[in-house]
Each structure stands twice: as structure tokens, then as C-alpha cells.
């Protein structure tokens, strides 16, 4: 499951950005939304070592961390539910832990969390993360990707705080509606 990469690809595709430049252990692309420059990267390290790419990229471009958004999967969110988070810890996500370590312990970067749900029954979480989505989960992720693209565009024009407040409220209603319909 590489939903973070899927979100990057969806956003890059919406902007016509090619993700084919190798840089700092990542596939990199750059473009614009209006006048706002956008830099996108897909680390080519193991997911748990993503910081080996993110840290040097942020340093190379002299990016303040409040201008960085990391996209990642989240088993604590229902499948297909997205959350924008302005900052925070790693929540036992090893890829995020690596990023924080390579940002010298700084947690002041945004995250777009993409829900993948919990493993069914007693399934090992590692096995769950490595499997392909079933049809229902795939449908939910595919529906969430365009929503994430809209949120990312809004961040550039409205700012992260305002977009997160609006977006997370919309996602909350989406989750409540899906839970009501499934019972």
C-alpha cells in the first residue's frame, strides 16, 4: 500500500508535473499552482527510511518546515478518510519517525494522513501494509485522492490552518455518513 505515493501522483497529475528527476534518493518534480511554486518528491528509500530523502531535500531547497507536507497512510483512520494535521509526533509510524529524525527532531511540518483502516481480525499489521487493497478499500481510496488534491490546492490559496479546519470538518461528516449507511 503506497497511498502517499498515490496522493503525490494524483496531485502531480492534476498540475501536469512529471515525477522523473532523481534527486536526494527521491523521484522529484516541480511546478506551479498559480504563482505558488510546488516541489514534490517520492522517496525511493524503504518507507521506514523516508527521512533519508526528505531531510536532504528540505535542506537543499532551504525549505522552512512549515512549508513541508508529508503524505502518509494511517491505520488509525477509516479507509478513505483524510486528515490534515499542522504538526505532531510520529504516532508509531516508522516513516514519519525517520522524517522527524532527519528534520533534527523538529515536528513542525504538516501531514496529510490517508486512512487505510485497521487490519482485519488478528492479521499482522506488517502483512496488512504489504497487501493490495480489496475492491471496497480501493474504491474508497480512489474517491479520497481527488479530495486530497482539492485540499492541497486550497492550502496554497487559503493557508494550512484555514484549510485544515474546513477540510477535517468535511471529512468528519463523510465518515459519519459512511458509518450511518453501513449500519
Per-chain topology:
Blueprint: H1 3-15, E1 21-23, E2 26-33, E3 36-43, H2 51-60, E4 69-74, E5 82-85, H3 94-102, E6 110-115, H4 125-130, H5 135-158, H6 160-182
Parallel strand pairs: 4-6
Antiparallel strand pairs: 1-2, 2-3, 5-6
- Mean of all residue-level pLDDT scores: 89
How many alpha or pi helices? 6
- Spatial order of the strands forming the largest sheet: 1-2-3
Terminal Cα separation, in Å?
27 Å
Q: What is the annotated CATH architecture?
A: 3-Layer(aba) Sandwich
Task: Kindly estimate the percentage of residues that lie in beta strands according to DSSP.
Answer: 15-25%
| Major sheet size, sense and barrel closure | 3 strands, antiparallel
Number of domains: 1
Overall 3D geometry? globular
String of helices and strands: HEEEHEEHEHHH
Structural class: alpha+beta
